[in-house]
Write a structure and sequence with these properties.
By secondary structure, the chain is α+β, with helices and mostly antiparallel strands. About 55% of the residues lie in helices and about 15% in strands. The strands form three sheets. A five-stranded antiparallel β-sheet has the order 2-1-5-4-3. A five-stranded mixed β-sheet has the order 7-9-10-12-11, with helices on one face. Strands 6-8 form a two-stranded antiparallel sheet. A hairpin with a 4-residue loop joins strand 4 and strand 5. Helix 6 runs parallel beside helix 9. The two termini are about 65 Å apart.
Length: about 500
Amino acid sequence: MELDIDLRWSMFRSIKTKFMLLVFGILASVIVLQLACNYVLVEPYYTWKRSHLIERAYEELQKETGNREKMVEIMNDYEDAYNIQFMLANKRMVCIYNSRQQNFRNGRNYYRVKANFSFRKNFSRFSRKPEAVIVSNDGGKNRAKISLFGILESKNQTYYVVIKSNIKSIKENMNETSQLVTVFSGVALALGVILAYIFGKKVSEPIIQMNEVTCHVAKMDFSKTVTETKKQDELASLARNINEMARQIEKNLIQLQEENLYREKIETARKEFISNVSHELKTPLAILSGYAEMLQMAGDTIDKSYYYEVILDEAKKMTDLVNELLRSVRIEEELYHLEMKKLDYSMLVKQQGEKMKKILEQKKLKVTIKVEDGIFVYGNEEYLVMILNNYLSNAMSHTKENGEVRLLLERVSGEKVKLSVYNEGENIPEEKIEKIWDSFYQVEESHTRTEERKRVGLGLYIVSSIARVHQGTYGVRNCEDGVEFYFCMETV
């Protein structure tokens, strides 16, 4: 029950309902005001208009006094056009013209035109500057008339004229007009409400849709969008802006999530970095400490040259580790200030590949180089070479004697180029593929130093950093009989 009440109240508060009520209120107010003015002001207006018409007829007759034919013509015109009555009497107060009977009679003709009016009895009303007034007869208000009592004079003639118009006919015309206006007003009101409903529905639908979309956006749901149109009005512009706002919020949210994940990854990497460095330093430090104690305790009874060689070797390993750390820090700092330019990537890979080929062949490895010509990229030559060298060095470390290494540079889908280095050997466990790009990470679980893993494990970490700065993608995939590392970036 409460839900139904809320729903009805929500519909009442909707823009469509408000718009309909507003239009209905405006139309109703205008119609009521019009009808009120019609009933209150129309009668005085018509009365004033008819009074002015009667006075104008008197003025025209006054100009033509003495010209009977012209006077009759004027009176006939007003009678036919405006239903105005004229009565004319000569200077002896004998009626010689009545609109209801006949025209002028000769003054010597004793046959009088009958008039429902006594000129002599109303002699005091006649004036040379008359005004139209309302005269009520005994019949009441419905028989009241607008009358003018005037004197027409010329050189030879004097006439007494009475000009009348029934107020009843004015009221009848006014009532007919009012009825017609009322009917038209009702039709206009109904039509206005219907058009307001149609227009309000058309306007409110996109607004309702916008409201739904913004509610979903507030809940971080970007699955809904506002239907856009080709119109150039405010609602169409608002729809486009809401969609663009939702896209930007979604994009920024994704970027923020990625940044948070990256920060979490950095924090995890930092902890692993500290742990790995600790392991890397722990072994040589333990050896140095142990052998130094043995030298101190042994005295001159043993051959000390072996212990000196071990101590020097471990010291060198620690020095290499520190130098590698300093190198990685230097590289990361320089990545933010790299000088980029257009490079012939095909020539660069081909030249560097030939240099590394000699080193790989000395390790008794089979090397194949295939480079597609005419590939240009926008980047830093030194660091792009570093990616290639790290991939080839990694392949050299993990390929057994007489194994195969393949270097390939080719265009791929779109405007991208792919650099890949394949080495024949064991696959990388799937759960460890993502971790090999972290600093100091080794696929082997043990941190014991062997001849196969004298490097400290920063090569692939540096590759990932350089790839991100060049807005490229990198990765590794296991093949049937080996592993392929790749790096992709845009061509120019």
